[in-house]
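[Automated response] Your request has been received and processed.

Submitted sequence:
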Amino acid sequence: MRVREVLDQMSAYKFDKARFFAECEAVYKTYPTDVSAMEDILNRRLAAQPDASSMRKKVWVYEVAAAHAAVHIFPASPFYAELDTGRERNSITTSFPPQPGLHCWLMKQYPAFTESFLSWREHYEAHGVLNGCMFMDASHHYANCETVVEKGFAGIQAETRARLKASDLSAHERDFLTCMDEVCEQVCRIADRFAQQAARMAALPEYAGDEQNLRRIAQTACRIPRQPAQTFYEALCAIWFTREICNALDGFGFAVIGHIDRLLGPFYTRDVKAGRLTPEEAQEMVDCFVSMTDARWDLSQELPGGTNADLVIGGCDRDGSIVCNDVTTMVINSFRKYRFANPKLQCRISARHPAAYFKQVGELAALGLNVLSVFNDDVIIRANEAQGKKPEDCRLYLAGGCQEILVDHEVNSRAYTYLNLVQMLNGSLFPERWNEVFARDGFRFESACEAEDFETFYRIVMRNYQREIDFLAARYSKFGSNWKTINPSLLLSATHPSCIRKAKDVSEGGAEYNTDSFAVSGTGTVIDSLLAIRQAVYLDKIVTMDGLRRALQENFENDELLRQYLLHKAPKFCRDSEATAFGARVMRDFAARLSGQPNSRGGRFEASLFAFYSYSWFKDATCATADGRKRGTPLSRGVNPSESTAGVDIAALLDAQRQLDYTQFPGGAVIYMDIPLTTGGIAPEVFASVMRLFCENGGSIMDFNVVDVPTLLDAQKHPENHKNIVFRVCGYSALFHSLPRQMQDEVIARTQR
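Generated structure:
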């Protein structure tokens, strides 16, 4: 009997969440394990071949792991990918500065680079100029699983070997292709080890009740991911295996699991029609698939960055046809039934999506799951097309970990460092201080304090923004040029067909699109501060520029009347129409200045208005601001107004989107909807209407938080009674009780405008 026939005759899989999580806990509680013996092998190879290329050294990592790393199979799961490479349990999607584990072995050979970068970064971080410990994005990549699903690694190897026959390749290009081919082979050997392990376990009496599932794994792992996927189950296996082995060994974090309903829909339809699969079994498999992020992560620990993992549903396919199918519903059902804190669910919407889809997503919002982000296709696709990217690639965009936009065939860095826009404004207001901070790099600010009118003041401020961003882009590109040396990413490259065509690793620009973005904090604070300066200094003339500067430096200790004026008399972004129109001008000017700078991979920087949690990181290092904010309080989040702005409800936020052009921000622009409502008391149609209006008004990205403030306050006092409350902190979701008290206070305060 053929393997396919055997698999088709196996009994249906049933997901047992409690058992699966217990099996995972038994393994993951032992992490990180000691992998020094494997590292010793690598060190001996390095001593014997010190002049080997970085590509060759990376192959060694895969060879050693394929031969020696422990493989773990969870009998309650039909999926296989857990390779023990010494990673910490809660650090599956980051790697720089170098973390424990084989995936960082090569990076650890370059301590001088790490020390040089961190020393430079820490200086500016100490002054609140920027935050972020990476020289490039180490956390939010996507291993193009679709390539593996369609071709298998055998197909990728065949294309690589055909390319190697070309006569025009340089020695370096030939080395890259040869090494990438070898890495693909090692990945297949790792899969073979899972097949062998599953077969051994199936023969043991203690696994008698799991024999069918273990045989399923044994008979699948010897084919997937080597060969193309043929069934719904095989496609799921290929997706999960590719992503997890990349996380384990490629030296970066692969937050994006994939556009699941688009990828799996055709397989599901074929299998059901052929009688190989029932809708019920497909749902059980999806339930397990979605659960695996929560199963690995220790949710009792503080989550300053969350898991970064995400699933994408909805949107459209390559030709623009709407994606909304049975798999879409299955994914939503999984979240509804099990209330997972992770992965995040990235819901792509457009004006063309059916009402039923909006209602389904609205039902999740109404439950207060707080794992949702909503992405407006009608804006995001156009924004990326405007950058010269192919329409069919833009239609297949993903959301990378938090909300970073990632089009098809793109490798980018959108969340590797966070710039404090407010501190940049302070460089124009207090050049005497900030020129000292930047003296080490020879950068100087032009003073705007002597400007006779607001337009002159504004032009100087924008010139300083342009010069500072250009300076930082050049510096980060210089650091980024080391990526190809300290950690070429051969497996990620194998999933990108353009890397074969170009004969380049992704670290060298092998992807079709190679972009960078600065994440930025304080957009609303800057807009409101500029409005306040215009009103108080230049129009009403209630204070001089010197007087305002003194009040800001003194944290308004002797100027409470001025502070109250700034808070209540100056126009406010998203509340007042004229102020929002001015904000549109500022954002347009930001977009122009955050775009166009070259990076180290032959691409360029693109504008983004994404901030993660940096709005809070910067609060203590940033002096009082002209909008009336005092030192120690958070900056504005995403494209939200200042946190101190009163009178801005959901309707006002949605209405303000009409005046703002987010097609200028291909990296996305995030608005946070914190809705202080008792969960379960609002009809899903209300949330559906909010999403549709957000879409129609031209919004880009929206995060939902539906919170019952009295319940959160009680959860602070009695956390043992509220273990299951999930809160959307920013780009990630976490169990409320796991957050530090300061973070709990901040997220509660933001819902009480």
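Summary generated for your ticket: The chain has 30 helices and 18 strands. The chain has a mean pLDDT of 93.
If you did not submit this request, please reply to this message.
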